[in-house]
Each structure stands twice: as C-alpha cells, then as structure tokens.
Amino acid sequence: MFSTHYHMLLDDFKDRKGITYYHMLHKSNEAQDRVMFLYKFVKGACQSSFGMNVARMAGLPPSILTKAKIKSGQFTRNLDEITKKIKEKKEMSV
What we know:
The protein is of the alpha+beta class. 48% of the residues lie in helices and 19% in strands. It has helices at 8-13, 51-57, 62-93, and strands at residues 22-29, 34-43.
C-alpha cells in the first residue's frame, strides 16, 4: 500500500496485476477552495490533491499558503508539459 499526490504514477501502475486504487471520500467547494473529508475509504483514484486545504487546516499562515499555491501551479504546469513530451516520444516510437 502506498499513497501519492503524483497522479502521473497512477498511469504507470494502472495495468499492473494486484494494483487497485482507493481514496478518501470528500465533499469540496471549489469556489470557496474548501474540502471536507468524510473518512470513508472508497474504490477509485482521487481526481485531485487537497494538500493546500490540509495545510490551511493545519494552521499555516496565509502568506505561506499564497506562495505555496503559486508554486504548486508552476509545478503542475511544468509536470504537465514534461508528461506531454514523454507521451509524444512514446507515441513516436511505436
């Protein structure tokens, strides 16, 4: 069993025998950037990460959360670009 916020790993393991995805059920309000965890373990991959919400619930200062949100956005864009390039290379080699 392992836990990850890196959704790219889900693709890497999706066809492996014995691998099944689960996540914690939640309710979220994107407009208010809030999440409520329902503490129910359900089958399937979670479609998003709630690290920022967890950091807010842990009491991190708003200035840190703002910087983290900016960095997270940059990281996501970079990761998406790298992932796209990797997929294009795989498609070209087939």
